[in-house]
Amino acid sequence: MTWDPATCIARTAKHVRQQMAGEATGHDWFHVERVRRMALRIAREEGADPVVVELAALLHDLDDWKRTGDAGGICPQARAYLASQAVPSALGEHVCRIIQELSYKGAEVPTPMSSLEGGCVQDADRLDALGAIGIARAFAYGGHHGRILYDPDQPPERHATFEAYQRSRGPTLNHFYEKLLLLADRMQTVTGRRLARQRHRFLEQFLEQFLAEWEGRL
Ligand code: ADP
Ligand code: NI
């Protein structure tokens, strides 16, 4: 097999689509497609390598611990797939490094990215956890995992380790304080930060309305 970026990207999209179709927790193919589109948009504005960005965006959730239970972060499926596609080894390594560094790991755990391309993909992934779609995904995830909507007697936590974050079983509304509202300040690119601000405000408006309705004020 000879290396041709456009052919490889088309084949990868088809492969990921087959693997992730119909997934109901917010990590489905359409999430991947949105991240791909947004990551490429950020990459254009930031001058990042679009081939690395598109491949990493397409493969970023194939090994996600929430889907596969792989908390070791070695992304075996993405790695094996890239190796099967004659992807140049430096490029394949770059893509795998991005996937390994990508995930949110708790309020007190920094998740730096070691390349501009990684920043584009992480920002795009995190933008999809904000705004209207982010809200829909949070409640889809919470429902799937049997989480209650909200409990005023269970305050949000600040997780100091990835293990504590993974173990947490709090109400879905807590996730807004434990992750979603923290993302805008942690964007890696100027473009990502700009886009996150608007979606962040939408989350704040949603929470204000939710709590006002809960307390019978509206
Ligand atoms: P990351 O790659 O940073 O781990 P993803 O973007 O792959 O995150 O997926 C996280 C999605 O799942 C987000 O939309 C997030 O809101 C949702 N999610 C994860 N954990 C929870 C939770 N405890 N409660 C509600 N939604 C969650
Ligand atoms: Ni994702």
Please give a structural write-up.
- This protein has 218 residues and is mainly alpha-helical.
- 62% of the residues lie in helices and 0% in strands.
- The mean pLDDT is 94.
- The structure holds adenosine-5'-diphosphate and nickel (II) ion.
- Nickel (II) ion (NI) binds next to α2.
- The site of nickel (II) ion has 5 residues, from α2.
Summary?
By secondary structure, the protein is mostly helical. It has helices at 5-20, 29-46, 50-59, 65-68, 76-84, 89-102, 116-127, 131-144, 162-167, 172-178, 190-214.
Q: What is the approximate shape?
A: globular
Helix and strand element order: HHHHHHHHHHH
Ligands, deduplicated: adenosine-5'-diphosphate, nickel (II) ion
Radius of gyration equals 18 Å
Q: How many angstroms does the end-to-end distance come to?
A: 62 Å
Number of helical elements: 11
Largest sheet: none
Strand content bin: under 5%
Low-confidence stretches are none
How would you classify the helix and strand content by structural class?
mainly alpha
**What's the mean pLDDT score?**
94
Query: Count the strands?
Result: 0
The helix content, as a percent range, equals 55-70%
